[in-house]
TrEMBL record:
PROSITE patterns: SHMT (PS00096). The modification N6-(pyridoxal phosphate)lysine is found at residue 231. InterPro entries: PyrdxlP-dep_Trfase, PyrdxlP-dep_Trfase_major, PyrdxlP-dep_Trfase_small, Ser_HO-MeTrfase, Ser_HO-MeTrfase-like, Ser_HO-MeTrfase_PLP_BS, SHMT-like_dom. CDD domains: SHMT (cd00378). Gene3D superfamilies: Aspartate Aminotransferase, domain 1 (3.90.1150.10), Type I PLP-dependent aspartate aminotransferase-like (Major domain) (3.40.640.10). This is Serine hydroxymethyltransferase. The gene is glyA. Catalyzes the reversible interconversion of serine and glycine with tetrahydrofolate (THF) serving as the one-carbon carrier. This reaction serves as the major source of one-carbon groups required for the biosynthesis of purines, thymidylate, methionine, and other important biomolecules. Also exhibits THF-independent aldolase activity toward beta-hydroxyamino acids, producing glycine and aldehydes, via a retro-aldol mechanism. Thus, is able to catalyze the cleavage of L-allo-threonine. Its EC number is 2.1.2.1. HAMAP family: SHMT (MF_00051).
């Protein structure tokens, strides 16, 4: 059952309680490989569901527009200080509602509509808010985009420099949503300095790896760092902006009053809890375990004939091109879900297929590492993926799902007892 217990919810709204319990059981019984998901601790769950959700707190600590902030101010100050300590930054804002508004605040703070901005193209692994055409950032700004080399699947920093010199962007974004390799923050910083641009590191996917020392930090290279607080950081659904002191005031004004009203205080508290957890020594072991699992799973998939974009991974994320397997990403992801393995279909670089029916799938190892799975389980996981993707009937898929449930029964899940 769900933990904390849902006794009051069950009495008040049994329909919703039943759905929440069903989702909790689903999360317990499936191998969750969606790279943007994780399991938060029970402490984070409790903070998220606390009475702090009752309080409205427009403004910042010590400068609110509502009374009764004696405890809220302390919560926010704790979250800010913990972010500064964990990441080693001069300034942190913990109020953004999610990653996209956090990135939009960067534009609002430092650019004007029509300014040239630069980011990684969405099909190459970037994010919508890095200037892609369907995003407000692509409609309101003149966006130019870099990609990856077709032969390596990796960013060519010489090409990035050539594009930056030709276009002279005001902002350069590095990072994205489907990048399986280490981001070269020093190289991006050198290019940004050369064209007098502000470098923004979007570390939403790798924030937990950075915090745990399993990925190089952008601090000292990027003037601004944007991140969500879930994914590898293992916190609630929220976001943070971090920066050097020179950009602090502009970012704060862009978040409030520029884009938002009152912060979600229950989320702020849960962020503070997650940051305290990330500061503990065992979190470094966790971050290292995420990467070790990803590398082991990548190796096992390669041995089974799967084509990995860039040939492998340096972080938590694996991007697989299924073209050689004769199946598209969407039906493969749906079959895997029925087989008890949850991931998402995803475009791959230079994908000839459409985004809603792409050639690839994206996997991440943060959640299974939280559950306690290790490198010794990765060959079996690759075997199940291979069986489900190539299954000729539902009986085979059902058999994999049963084996998955049997394995996971021995691995506890925060939020389920």
């Amino acid at each position: 059952m769900h933990e904390p217990a849902l006794s009051h919810l069950a009495a008040s709204d049994p329909a919703i309680a039943e759905l929440v319990e069903g989702e909790a059981r689903r999360q317990f019984e499936k191998i969750r490989l969606i790279a943007s998901e994780n399991y938060v601790s029970t402490a984070v769950l409790e903070a998220t569901g606390s009475v702090l959700t009752n309080k409205y707190s427009e403004g910042y600590a010590g400068k609110r527009y509502y009374e009764g902030q004696q405890y809220i101010d302390q919560v926010e100050k704790l979250a800010i200080q913990r972010a500064k300590d964990v990441f080693g930054v001069e300034h942190a804002n913990v109020q953004p509602y999610s990653g996209s508004p956090a990135n939009l605040a960067v534009y609002m703070a430092l650019a004007n509509p029509g300014d040239t901005v630069m980011g990684m193209a969405l099909p190459a692994g970037g994010h919508l808010t890095h200037g892609w055409s369907v995003s407000a950032t692509g409609k309101w700004f003149r966006a130019v985009q870099y990609g990856v080399r077709k032969d390596t699947g990796r960013v060519d920093m010489d090409e990035v420099r050539e594009l930056a010199l030709a276009e002279r962007p005001k902002l350069i974004f590095c990072g994205g949503t489907a990048i399986p390799r280490t981001i070269d923050f020093p190289a991006f910083a050198e290019i940004a300095r050369e064209v007098d641009a502000v470098l923004v590191a979007d570390i939403a996917h790798i924030a937990g790896l950075v915090a745990g020392g399993a990925h190089p930090s952008p601090v000292g290279h990027a003037q601004i760092i944007s991140t969500t607080t879930h994914k590898t950081l293992r916190g609630p659904r929220g976001a943070m902006l971090m920066s050097d002191a020179a950009h602090a005031k502009a970012l704060d004004k862009a978040v409030f009053p520029g884009l938002q009203g009152g912060p979600h205080n229950h989320t702020t508290a849960a962020i503070a809890v997650a940051l305290a957890e990330a500061a503990r020594p065992d979190f470094r072991d966790y971050a290292a375990g995420i990467v070790a699992n990803a590398k082991a799973l990548a190796d096992a998939l390669t041995e089974r004939g799967f084509d990995l974009v860039s040939g492998g991974t340096d972080n938590h994320l694996i991007l697989v091109d299924l073209t050689s397997k004769g199946v598209a990403g969407k039906p493969a992801a749906q079959a895997l879900d029925r087989a008890g393995i949850e991931l998402n279909y995803n475009s791959v670089p230079f994908d000839p297929r459409k985004p809603f029916d792409p050639s690839g799938i994206r996997l991440g190892t943060a959640a299974i590492t939280t559950r306690g799975l290790g490198v010794e389980q990765m060959p079996q996981l690759a075997a199940w993926i291979d069986r489900a993707v190539g299954a000729s009937d539902e009986a085979e898929i059902d058999a994999v799902a049963a084996e998955v449930r049997e394995l996971l029964a021995g691995y506890p899940m925060p939020g389920w007892i």
